[in-house]
Amino acid sequence: MTAIEQNLAKICQQIARLNQTSGQHTQLLAVSKTKPVKAIQDAYNAGQRLFGENYVQEGIDKIKTLSNLTDIEWHFIGPLQSNKTRLVAEHFAWVQSVDRFKIAKRLSEQRPSQLGPLNICLQVNISGEETKSGITPDQVLPLAEQVAQLEHLTLRGLMAIPMKTQNVETTQRYFAQLAELYRILGQKYSSVDTLSMGMSNDMQTAIEQGSTMVRVGTAIFGERI
Ligand SMILES: *Cc1c(COP(=O)(O)O)cnc(C)c1O
């Protein structure tokens, strides 16, 4: 077994155990940014199917190289500039980092219709950090209303990266606030089924607060250099 296979097995076990307690079904997105194709293949061979990439060109290169693995679901999770939307719309199944209507509109217009709708999460800047992308909590419903009207997109939910802190209670509070926003959004839109929160360091807290998708890089693939 490779280290990646071992790491994956351990994380899947952890998720399964936490889900047993809570009765929910949290999916695992393997975040492979900066990691080689070989690492993705190892994870794939261990059964992993959902992969997340942050950089457009790097992501597209990997998608093309691995195009024979047709059941991989590729999620774009990084900041997206408007001049790169077409490549993303043509190659990814999901974009989790939408925080502007302009970007959403371009993604919808550029989505090849034979691929079916592109799945969208709105990125929320839950801890209000000035340097971070994402909308404020009070912008969620207005942007959702606009995005939900776009023909080639499906609004699936929310994604967030809370501020790093050693204080578990602070992280818990951010995740709980996201869960409440997600609940409200879900009442308005039947397509909403994804609350993407939790990474290597705070996966357990996120699942305890209701995450339906954790995005894990380091704990699967090792430190990024
Ligand atoms: C890099 C990244 C992750 C994974 O972070 P790890 O701490 O390595 O698990 C998750 N989500 C987003 C948006 C990222 O950019």
CATH fold title: TIM Barrel
Radius of gyration: 17 Å
Bound compounds, each kind once, are: pyridoxal-5'-phosphate
Write the element-wise H/E pattern from the N-terminal end onward.
HEHEHEHEHEHEHEHEH
Characterize the overall form.
Answer: globular
pLDDT < 50 runs, ≥5 residues: none
Secondary structure tally, helices: 9
In round numbers, the mean pLDDT is: 97
Overall domain count: 1
Do you know the CATH architecture? Answer: Alpha-Beta Barrel
Structural class: alpha/beta
Q: What would your notes on this structure say?
A:
There is one protein chain. The protein is of the alpha/beta class and 225 residues long. The protein has a single domain (3-221), classed as TIM Barrel (Alpha-Beta Barrel). 42% of the residues lie in helices and 18% in strands. It has helices at 3-22, 37-45, 56-65, 85-91, 101-110, 140-147, 168-188, 203-208, 218-221; strands at 27-31, 50-53, 73-76, 94-98, 118-124, 153-160, 194-196, 213-216. Strand 3 (73-76), helix 4 and strand 4 (94-98) form a beta-alpha-beta unit. The model has no long low-confidence stretch (mean pLDDT 97). Bound molecules: pyridoxal-5'-phosphate. Pyridoxal-5'-phosphate binds next to strand 8 and helix 9. Pyridoxal-5'-phosphate (PLP) binds at residues 31, 33, 54, 77, 161, 199-201, 215-219.
